[in-house]
Design goal:
Layout (H helix, E strand, L loop, with lengths): L1 H11 L1 E7 L3 H37 L2 H12 L6 H8 L3 H11 L10 H8 L4 H39 L14 H4 L12 H10 L28 H19 L7 E7 L6 E4 L7 E5 L21 H10 L1 H16 L20 H13 L4 H9 L12 H6 L12 E2 L2 H12 L33 H5 L18 H9 L1 H15 L5 H13 L5 H14 L9 H10 L2 H4 E2 L1
């Protein structure tokens, strides 16, 4: 626990920070102007909310009239909406909302049971008036109760926030602690009873349920919906607010570039141990230091700022770090690490298959000033890396998992490499370095490393080939072999479009069909075809198109077949 809070103190003394890549005057000008826009938007929002609140109270006093009018439309009389609206001097939109609300089959509260019974047996207008009067009293009651509860809760929340101690860290979403994220979670709030709150939501509130957002509350008029209800000075004032906002947005300077980064907080320090994990039961302050379990003696407390630099130096100087880094390099080159649990070098992980080799590689990495390129060069020069993937029955029986590296492991390309290899074979891959990212559509020709990755919905093509979930860390790629991957090469627009590009280049080239087949193999596999492969390709072309002249059928299909072969997707 002390090791945990020692590290926690380092990050509690660290905050996220944006580093502008523009002069201070430009940053200040933009931020000042953006603040004016935000203030103007908030003023418009509050003004419309105030107008709607007054309108809702007025309309609530006419609830009984709208209910009776709805009975005339839905009851035995079956009058039309326009005639009832005109006769009762009611608002057509509000009446239509009431009609739709009252004829709905599903009820989430019990206040309309009498109405449903009355409609089912064809009740009278007097009954409708009685029900309308009851609903009107209920509407005015829940509106007043909700307003009083909101004011009481707001006062309680402000009092609670005033008592909170200073925060110790800053998270990237702007919250500094769980208390800030969950305002009001630690004091009692006044709430309406369930049915009364649902009735309030139906008449005055907004739905939290995404599926019901299209259904506005009966007396709720937001945004431009409020315009037809106000006039004179009230409407002129709203128009002025909107005009000023539009002018502010037009005059907004171009956003300045910046880098996301971190920095020490203004006041760095240690944090106290949370006894049994409770932030309200604090123990001693734990000095910031490297985990004691990884030190030979007592760890030295960090003294400089947050301690991030000292922590980084302690990590790099620890021999375990070099072993982990060297193992990752080996894993990416061979498909499996010397330690096959790359994120767990402890007793719960697997032991190294070649401990002396791992020590050598770690020492080589350190001696080479932590140059990964130098370590990769050293490994790739080894005879082990230059082995073929040929099968040997004797070796396989003695070491079926190839832990002793008697052959090279056959590995499938990762999702990004498969996509980029297809584009490279057709000559469409854009090798430009740097620049903005974009969605990985069929029109995006840059390397996949420049593609946008969503934490909420991973690109379907990448996910099909086992791209890891970006919301959590992934120590290594899982590899699956499923039929959908084969169907990708059969049906994907990317594969079909690039196959046409390759076939267009080779089918128009001068020479024999054998030479064109050889060119296809060179573009896709980087080698010349064997005689049997050439014969099979020519046979495929003849069966697809006996004349061998169709650019739209035979040659694109041949290229598509080559793309879908194991040789294209796997490394031997």
């Amino acid at each position: 626990m002390k090791d945990y809070y020692a590290l926690g103190g380092v990050f509690a003394s660290t905050e996220y920070r944006e580093y502008p890549l523009a002069p201070a005057s430009e940053v200040e000008r933009y931020e000042t102007h953006q603040k004016k826009i935000n203030n103007q938007e908030e003023a418009i929002k509050k003004y419309i909310a105030a107008m709607n609140d007054q309108l809702a109270q007025i309309l609530a006093t006419k609830t009984s009239r709208y209910v009776v009018a709805s009975w005339k439309i839905l009851g035995p009389q079956k009058q039309n909406l326009a005639s009832v609206t005109m006769a009762g001097k009611l608002d057509k939109e509000v009446l239509d909302r009431w009609v739709q609300y009252l004829k709905a089959a599903r009820r989430e509260h019990s206040y309309l049971k009498d109405w449903d019974d009355m409609i089912a047996r064809g009740g009278t207008e007097d009954e409708a008036q009685n029900i309308g009067a009851a609903l009107q009293d209920l509407a005015l009651s829940v509106h007043a109760e909700k307003k009083a509860a909101d004011e009481e809760n707001k006062a309680a929340l402000e009092a609670s926030n005033a008592k909170k101690p200073g925060v110790s860290t800053k998270l990237p979403n702007g919250y500094a602690s769980f208390d800030m994220f969950c305002d009001g979670c630690y004091f009692s709030t006044k709430v309406l009873a369930r049915d009364r709150f649902i009735f309030w939501s139906d008449l005055f509130g907004t739905y939290a349920n995404e599926a019901k957002k299209k259904d506005s509350a009966i007396y709720l008029f937001e945004g431009e919906q409020i315009d037809r209800w106000i006039s004179g000075e009230f409407k002129d004032h709203l128009d002025t607010l909107r005009t000023d906002l539009a002018e502010l947005k037009r005059a907004l300077p171009k956003p300045y570039p910046y880098l996301h980064g971190i920095a020490d907080t203004q006041k760095t320090g240690n944090i106290r141990l949370n006894l049994r994990g409770s932030p309200y039961n604090l123990g001693e302050a734990i000095p910031r230091h490297f985990p004691a379990i990884l030190c030979d003696g007592d760890p030295k407390p960090f003294q400089s700022g947050s301690g991030r630099l000292e922590l980084a130096e302690a990590i790099v100087s620890h021999p375990l770090s070099a072993r982990v880094a060297a193992n990752r390099v080996w894993m990416n080159l061979f498909g499996q690490g010397i330690v096959r649990t790359p994120s767990n070098f402890g007793k719960m992980g697997q032991p190294p298959s070649h401990p002396e080799l791992l020590e050598y590689l770690a020492a080589h990495l350190i001696d080479g000033r932590w140059s990964t390129k130098n370590l990769i060069r050293e490994v790739m020069r080894s005879s082990a890396y230059q082995l073929s993937g040929d099968f040997d029955e004797k070796n396989a029986s003695a070491d079926p998992e190839n832990r002793l590296v008697w052959r090279m492991n056959r590995r499938r390309l990762d999702a990004e490499s498969i996509r980029d290899a297809i584009l490279f074979a057709s000559g469409d891959l854009d090798l430009k370095v740097g620049g903005d990212s974009a969605d990985l559509t069929t029109d995006f020709k840059r390397r996949a490393v420049y593609g946008k990755v969503s934490r909420f919905k991973v690109n379907e093509t990448l996910a099909l080939f086992d791209f890891p979930t970006p919301s959590i860390s992934s120590e290594k790629r899982n590899v699956t072999h499923v039929p959908l991957q084969r169907l990708f090469f059969l049906n994907s627009d990317l594969v079909m479009n690039e196959a046409k590009r390759v076939s267009g280049a080779i089918s128009n080239a001068a020479g024999t069909d054998e030479a064109r087949v050889a060119e296809a193999y060179r573009k896709i596999f980087g080698r010349a075809p064997e005689k049997a492969e050439t014969a099979l390709a020519l046979q495929f072309l003849r069966e697809s198109d006996p004349t061998l002249r169709s650019k739209q059928t035979a040659w694109p299909h041949l290229v598509q077949v080559l793309f879908s072969s194991n040789e294209f997707s796997f490394i031997d």
